[in-house]
Design goal:
16 helices; alpha/beta; six-stranded parallel β-sheet; 11% strand; globular
Length: 467
């Protein structure tokens, strides 16, 4: 509230107070001055109210492309980021699909552009490729341009994950004849290194997708300046990739999404897991968990490999279970996590070094249970923990899962592809910073990588079970 001091009549010092003071005129003067003061007070009050309203009702980020999340408001670039997709020689795109099909008995492929990407968990590279080729695409944070001179970023649409398995392994050995992933990687980088826009900024403004943990392994050190679209950092060094520079993607789920509503009545199993029991490295925990859980009556845990029948069983199992176990495998992440999410089966994540996609818009504590490896391996601990979760809490988990389910759907127009491009667009300021920084830094001898900026996740949060 604005305070106003009392207004006093000002007397003419050259006149006596008794002879010059006119009460009638003084009242008129006071009335006029009072009206002016009231007017000023009213105007000041109106201006204050207007300013207050503007402050709290004007969007901080008025960009119409800003993505809003129930819990998060994010700043996105004011204009759509311009991206140029290289028109690669077909051997790096459709040619990879052709080699995949030929190695499995296909013949007589006249037009390779009619080929469809084989269904697997690394199909993100196909979805991004198709999205940028869609002439009717709209609402994205990146706009494809045909002139590379106008581009902010450059997308390299090599099917790196499919290339890795195009020549199938037989009896543990990759055949020497036929398609070679390593040669294709080398040829790709040699082709890129001849391009003006690659050489201009040493690849910093380029984007690669290498979702399989082993994708691009032969040439990773030659493309590590670029933005890498990965599933985790399990097999990447601290000087090759980081959360700051790169983007974590969800695997493409392999089982059908659950279309029903929230509820536990039709979910007879406490917890479900079906997958390879024996893994390397951090995945050794799987065998130990099998030993602890296989005798629990309300836990379904089964060793199995990928097949049509196993996917059918996994679909049925996840759709009828309250919790779905996600232990580490050969690397911290796996497709199973995203199968569980779209099944509304609350993930139980036991993977101490996992990184998760889209964490700026998704609070995973609201949709998953995190248990550190040491606690999970205590006899009886895990089953007791989950049995103690009340029905109401499970329903809360499921409700939150439904809210974020679309982020993991690659076929959803507002799903994974759109979110991936938003994440990529947010890297642009950092890319520009590093490009300008590179131009002024002199050659230095360093004993360790400079500005590697790797953020590691120390999983073990169990607060999602506490009220």
């Amino acid at each position: 509230m604005i305070n106003q001091r009392p207004i006093k009549p000002r007397l003419n010092p050259s006149s006596s107070s008794s002879s010059s003071f006119d009460p009638h005129k003084s009242d008129q003067t006071l009335t006029k001055m009072g009206r002016r003061s009231i007017f000023k007070l009213t105007l000041a009050t109106l201006l204050f109210i207007f300013a207050f309203y503007t402050l709290f009702h004007t969007p901080i980020h008025p960009n119409p492309h800003t993505h809003l999340h129930p819990q998060t408001t994010l700043q996105t670039p004011q204009q759509s980021v311009k991206i140029y997709m290289y028109n690669l020689p077909s051997r790096f795109t459709y040619g990879v699909i052709e080699s995949y099909e030929i190695s499995r008995g296909a013949k007589g492929i006249d037009d390779v552009t009619t080929l469809k990407y084989p269904g697997n968990q690394h199909a993100a590279e196909w979805h991004l490729f198709c999205d940028l080729n869609n002439t009717k695409r709209s609402g994205s944070d990146v706009t494809r341009v045909s002139d590379p001179g106008q581009a902010d970023l450059f997308y390299v649409p090599f099917f790196s994950s499919l290339s890795l398995v195009a020549n199938p392994v037989r009896n543990g050995v990759v055949p020497k004849e036929g398609y070679s992933d390593e040669e294709t990687q080398e040829e790709l980088v040699m082709w890129l290194e001849e391009q003006f826009y690659w050489k201009r900024n040493n690849g910093r403004d380029h984007v690669f997708i290498c979702q399989d943990p082993n994708a691009l392994y032969k040439v990773i050190d030659r493309v590590k300046n670029a933005v890498l679209l990965v599933s985790d950092f399990g097999r990447l060094g601290s000087d090759q990739a980081s959360l700051v520079k790169d983007v974590v993607l969800p695997y493409s789920h392999r089982i059908n999404a659950y279309k029903g509503d929230t509820g536990v009545e039709n979910r007879k199993w406490l917890m479900f897991f079906m997958g390879n029991r024996y893994r390397k490295e951090g995945g050794r925990i799987r065998d130990l968990l099998f030993q602890l859980l296989e005798d629990e009556n309300d836990v379904f845990i089964k060793h199995g490999s990928q097949s049509r029948e196993s996917r059918r069983m996994a679909t049925q199992g996840m759709h009828t279970s309250k919790f779905c176990l996600h232990p580490a495998g050969d690397t911290p992440s796996a497709c199973r996590l995203f199968d569980a999410i779209v099944s509304l089966c609350v993930p139980v994540i036991i993977s101490d070094y996992i990184e998760l996609p889209f964490e700026d818009v998704i609070d995973y504590r609201k949709i998953a249970v995190f248990v550190d490896t040491e606690s999970a391996l205590k006899p009886g601990y895990l089953a007791k923990l989950l049995r103690g979760v009340k029905k109401e809490r499970i329903l809360e988990f499921q409700t939150e899962l439904k809210k974020v389910q679309h982020y993991f759907e690659y076929d959803n127009p507002d799903g994974a592809v759109k979110e991936i491009w938003r994440q990529v667009s947010l890297k642009l300021p950092l890319i520009k910073l590093m490009i300008n920084r590179d131009k002024r830094i002199v050659q230095r001898q360093l004993s360790k990588p400079d500005c590697s900026c790797v953020c590691s996740n120390q999983t073990g949060i169990q607060s999602s079970l506490k009220r």
